[in-house]
Amino acid sequence: MISVLFYTDPCINISSLGDTARAYYNNVACNGWNKSNLVDSIILAAFEFDIMNVLNLACSFNDGWWFAVHITDLLTHGDYIDLRMQQNSSQNYREFLIKNYADTLMSHSSLWQIGLDYLDHCQISARALQEIYLERIPLQTEAKARKILFLAKKRNMDNLVKTIANVMTSKAIANGKLETALTWVAHSKDVHFADELANRWLREYVERRNIEGFEILKDMGSCMLVSDKLTFVGKYCEFHKLYSENEYKLSASLLLSLISSGLAPPNFQMIMLLDALPLLEAPDLIFSSKETSQLMKCLEDCVLYKEQLAELSDYQDKE
């Protein structure tokens, strides 16, 4: 048709394109040409500037809304739609198509991220839809969960970020992966999980007396400020680090502040007092008399606590 057009009337006016295309469509016969096919109907409607017909026919394609979305977008950016429709109606129609296409993409196992990108170009309820789609994606692996978390953070979906991080924290704790759980707590800032991790680390240390399990806590930065208990664990790791570097004065000062803070579980106070013994026995004076008195007071409290536990145990046995 284009060849015939340029041969017969190379200077044709754009307003005459529709009539010429219709005449060609009606008069030219060609073996194997099915004039009722959808593509030709759309081309003819486009030449006739029948935009609404173009859009209606485009929606008839069984391609998951791909063609309808992109032809509508081209016509919108070319200012062909707003000339014939009110702007709000045009925008709503365009977004309706984008949302349908995004819905198709979001149901695909590997194209769902592209669906999110399409929704970024919608103005009406786009964020709510994105959040709904993301929270329905199964968190099958760490990598996938981190990818979803990144996309949620990018779009400032704080509630979803916390939900994903809490789910993954719970999974990691259930599997005994405390280091992994801590990385998720850094995202969620959840005090409950932070306290649970701190308690588990302390219990593990009481049982094994192995500081190596605390390696990740040495560089956790602001994450340890999520809860008081996690802060305590982080500072306790810092004490061991200073002690191993022969920074006895600094380590002693930090240990004393931890003992005085009251953040440690009662059964952990005695362990910290045992940590203080090598410093008390050091050739150089490290603790002042006042600081030594504080340690003695802590020791008295520990002894009193153990006596109370023993009395409680005896009372329960008698009952």
Shape: rod-shaped
What's the number of extended β-strand segments? 0
Give the amount of beta strand, in percent.
under 5%
Continuous helix count:
16
The average pLDDT is 82
Radius of gyration: 35 Å
- Report the end-to-end length measured between terminal Cα atoms: 102 Å
H/E element sequence: HHHHHHHHHHHHHHHH
Low-confidence stretches: none
Helix/strand structural class: mainly alpha
**Helix fraction?**
55-70%
In this structure, how is the largest beta sheet organized? none
Question: What layout of secondary structure does this protein have?
Answer:
Blueprint: H1 2-8, H2 17-27, H3 38-47, H4 51-58, H5 66-77, H6 87-106, H7 112-119, H8 126-135, H9 142-154, H10 158-174, H11 178-188, H12 191-208, H13 228-244, H14 248-261, H15 266-280, H16 289-318
Could you characterize the architecture of this molecule?
Helix content is 69%, strand content 0%. With 319 residues, the protein is mainly alpha-helical. It has a domain at 187-313. It is rod-shaped, with a radius of gyration of 35 Å. The termini are far apart. Pfam families: Nucleopor_Nup85. This is Nuclear pore complex protein Nup85.
